[in-house]
Design goal:
heterodimer; A: mainly alpha; about 75% helix; B: mainly alpha; 9 helices
Chain lengths: ~230, ~230
């Protein structure tokens, strides 16, 4: 697993991410048909939903990496959890920005307390708290506490989902898969969306890989600095 | 002696220690109670004199006050515990460390219950709400809600003892995680105030119970990682 994240093929990964994002833009703005009712505004769907799925994926990785850290106690898993949380918050912010931009012309309001929006906002708060907790502690306890919060936070997602579901909903019902298994999208829209999602996930993995390696280098640097301080103090 | 018997004995010993200290100082309960009353009164000014409006938001006001009171009480308790590192001493003496968690949680729950019992009559007078009409149903909602607040709050309060800015970190961690509980408790209470029965709030009660069970099990599982070394 750690080998997969090693520096080998990093440039190739970057190039693939670059071109897939470029193609995604091209497909969304040039090839995708305009939606009948919503018009051009609907194109934000490709980025909004892709960011949302990537965000959930990122937080799931925080959850898995946190469990793995408590089990294996390897610094690498801690670095993965931290990096995934950070990138997850970035994508969560993107969802919270693109959501209102889409909602304003369609719902006529920037914000509504509908379940999906509320869930995203609460997730943002929880994982920002996760990052703040990490900044605030400077010893091995940091990784353990963060791992505990990473697990609790993800379990909480299910409960938050349940609780906010009780509210009246404005959010469009998932357009990907509707009742009876049919999709609300034309086939062109669907494959462009799939491509977009793939591009976002590739981007996520690239960022995760870079961030994890930076986190590990920083950790190694801290250890070295500590050793030098100890030597000088002697 | 079987290990479960030792566990229960240690929980009771720790609980007795906490309650005895509290009985002598009355520090935590007093600050929680006064704070809760203050929050309710201040909200009352914010809402205005419209009786119907106040009735509608009363459950939200009470639960927000309880959330803040939980944070306040746990901060006081944590402060007492971190003085002269007494927590480490207690941990060394324990057979199973989750006994500490259970004892702290029960203590917090008792303080909160005390606060509720003292505050609700005042709310009843100020907001003109008859809590005695279905006191059993209110009791269930408040016990389940307070149990959840105590579980999550206690877990985080012991965690933040090791952070630099623990006064700030506790609410930042505790408030977002307890949002499902807050939603369920506020709406269940609001429905009861509106004259509905236990049957109408079954969904919320289920949510409260599931929250309590999941977080209790999770806390017991991860507590060792929080207090180790």
């Amino acid at each position: 697993m750690q080998m997969m994240f090693a520096s080998k093929g990093r440039t190739l990964h970057a190039v693939i991410v670059y071109f897939s994002m470029l193609f995604a833009m091209f497909f969304v703005f040039i090839c995708a048909p305009n939606e009948k009712i919503q018009g051009i505004v609907q194109k934000i769907f490709y980025f909004h939903v892709s960011s949302a799925i990537t965000m959930f994926f990122a937080f799931f990785i925080v959850f898995v990496a946190s469990i793995m850290y408590l089990w294996k106690r390897s610094d690498w898993w801690d670095a993965v959890a931290f990096s995934a949380a950070e990138i997850g918050v970035v994508f969560c912010t993107l969802v919270l920005i693109t959501g209102p931009i889409w909602g304003r012309p369609i719902w006529g309001t920037w914000w509504s307390w509908d379940p999906t929006l509320t869930l995203t906002l609460v997730l943002w708060l929880i994982y920002v708290a996760y990052l703040m907790l990490r900044i605030d502690i400077h010893d091995p306890k940091r990784a353990r506490f963060a791992a505990v919060l990473g697990i609790i936070g993800f379990v909480d997602v299910l409960l938050i989902r349940w609780s906010v579901e009780k509210w009246r909903t404005l959010h469009p019902k998932p357009v990907l898969i509707q009742e009876g298994g049919t999709t609300g999208l034309t086939s062109t829209m669907l494959w462009i969306f799939m491509f977009c999602l793939g591009a976002f996930l590739l981007l996520f993995f690239y960022l995760l890989r870079e961030r994890t390696s930076i986190t590990q280098s920083r950790h190694a640097l801290e250890v070295l600095r500590q050793e030098i301080d100890d030597l000088l103090a002697r | 002696m079987s290990s479960s018997k030792i566990f229960i004995q240690q929980v009771f010993a720790l609980l007795a220690k906490d309650l005895k200290t509290e009985w002598r100082t009355r520090e935590i309960f007093t600050s929680m109670f006064v704070f809760t009353v203050l929050v309710v009164v201040v909200f009352n000014f914010a809402i205005g004199a419209d009786t119907e409006l106040i009735r509608q938001v009363a459950s939200g006001v009470v639960w927000v006050a309880l959330l803040f009171a939980t944070v306040l009480g746990l901060q006081r308790a944590g402060h007492m515990e971190s003085e002269e590192d007494s927590l480490q001493g207690v941990l060394l003496a324990l057979h199973d460390r989750s006994a500490l968690f259970v004892a702290k949680m029960v203590a917090q729950m008792l303080y909160l219950l005390g606060v509720v019992v003292c505050t609700l009559p005042l709310c009843s007078i100020w907001f003109r709400i008859d809590f005695t009409a279905c006191i059993g149903a209110f009791g269930i909602v408040f016990v389940l809600g307070i149990l959840g607040l105590s579980i999550v709050g206690t877990l985080f309060s012991i965690m933040v003892l090791h952070t630099r800015a623990h006064e700030v970190m506790l609410p930042i961690l505790f408030l977002p995680v307890s949002i499902p509980l807050t939603i369920a408790a506020v709406y269940a209470t609001a429905q009861l105030i509106a004259g509905k029965g236990l049957k109408d709030i079954a969904d919320y009660l289920a949510l409260l119970s599931v929250f309590d069970i999941i977080f209790f099990m999770l806390s017991i599982m991860v507590f060792d990682y929080i207090v180790e070394g």
